[in-house]
Automatic annotation (TrEMBL):
One of its GO terms (biological process) is autophagosome assembly. It comes from Caenorhabditis brenneri (Nematode worm). GO terms for cellular component: cytoplasm. Keywords: Autophagy, Repeat, WD repeat. One of its GO terms (molecular function) is phosphatidylinositol-5-phosphate binding. This is Uncharacterized protein. Belongs to the WD repeat PROPPIN family. The keyword Repeat applies. SUPFAM superfamilies: WD40 repeat-like.
Length: 350
């Protein structure tokens, strides 16, 4: 069975996959099947699915020919095993292309429109904004739990620009002008925000260079080279600590870059920074989502890749005695089988 969509929670605590049979939730590390009472909801085929960390709320969009219209966004409550709320965007704006969810905001994209809602209680629309034609729903959200700061980044109206909007300053009456950064000469292909919303990474349709900007000053901090041959950028993700940036492309390689925040106190940290990746991992699969597992007393930092063939790959990485980054033998799971086995062993038999 193939996976149509995969997403990692903003906190990097878990991830969700959408398939022709619905959606499934997992803990990122250690890998655990995370469905309430191990029950997989009967929601039909799913093409977009997002969730809020360890919350019971799941946001999804049906696949074409599924149970719900393409301009409907469903909020599913795992505790009660049912759809709790349904949001319908005006049909004149076409199908939903992406959704993002945090602990205080829900953002829905169509090709030419962005809708922002209060979330998760008393869901209501705060604002709707016209955007540049964005049929792939290219966008990224950040959320800082300690301050509730929430930002959204998406392609700007001018070619190669990215806009960053503070979602907490939006009201039904007005919205402050977003930060606009000229990032590339060609169209934006991927964008990522760190969890604080202070760093934004962008890649263009050329796919050879990734640029990292200070989201507050718009200053270019790092220019990171993926390669010299053009490529389609599949995923781009910051680590929760903002020390690393991961990239997946259609060239079958995962790239890990060492970066650091522009804050003065962060500059004291020991982290390798350069124009090329500190680690390259061969993975000849279509990567749908990237995430990071935290370093613990028993394990090093880990890079997680969720692929379209329903496989989960985790690579722990560290430095060797010469100071060179190395990736250890990967941990691998087939997610569909893993979930089925988890359900089998956890559901008591009479």
């Amino acid at each position: 069975m193939s996976v149509a969509h995969a997403s990692v929670a903003l906190e990097h605590t878990g991830f969700a996959i959408g398939t022709e049979n619905g959606f499934k939730l997992f803990q990122l590390h250690p890998l655990h099947f995370r469905m309430y009472k191990n029950f997989v909801p009967d929601v039909g085929p799913v093409r977009i699915v997002k969730h809020m960390g360890l919350s019971n709320r799941v946001v999804y969009v049906s696949a074409l020919g599924g149970k719900f219209a393409q301009n409907n966004v469903l909020i599913f409550d795992m505790e009660f095993n049912r759809n709790k709320t349904e949001i319908t965007t005006p049909s004149r704006y076409g199908a939903v292309t992406n959704v993002h969810v945090s602990h205080n905001r829900l953002v829905v994209f169509t090709a030419n429109r962005m809708f922002v809602y209060e979330f998760p209680e008393n869901i209501k629309q705060i604002r709707a904004e016209d955007i540049r034609n964005n049929p792939r729903g290219i966008s990224a959200m950040s959320y800082e739990p300690s301050t509730s700061a929430c930002y959204i980044a998406y392609p700007g109206f001018d070619t190669g620009t990215v806009q960053i909007m503070n979602l907490n300053t939006l009201t039904t009456r007005e919205s402050k002008s977003p930060v606009v950064i000229k990032a590339h000469e060609t169209e934006i292909a991927q964008v990522a925000l760190n969890c604080q919303g202070t760093l934004v990474a962008t890649g263009s349709t050329k796919g050879t260079v990734i640029r990292v900007f200070d989201a507050r000053t718009k200053g270019l901090l790092y220019e990171l080279r993926r390669g010299t041959v053009p490529a389609h950028l599949a995923c781009l993700a910051f680590s929760p600590c903002s020390c690393y940036l991961a990239l997946a492309s259609d060239k079958g390689t995962l790239h890990l870059f060492g970066i650091r925040d522009a804050e003065p106190q962060k500059k004291k940290g020991l982290i390798d920074v350069g124009t090329s990746s500190i680690l390259k991992i061969q993975l000849d699969r279509k990567v749908l989502a990237l995430g990071f597992s935290k370093q613990t007393a028993k394990s090093f930092h880990g890079l997680v890749a969720i692929c379209s063939d329903a496989t989960y790959w985790r690579y722990h990485f560290s430095k060797d005695s010469n100071g060179k980054y190395i990736a250890m033998q990967p941990y691998f799971e087939q997610l569909i089988d893993f979930a089925d086995e988890a359900s089998f062993f956890r559901i008591p038999t009479e």
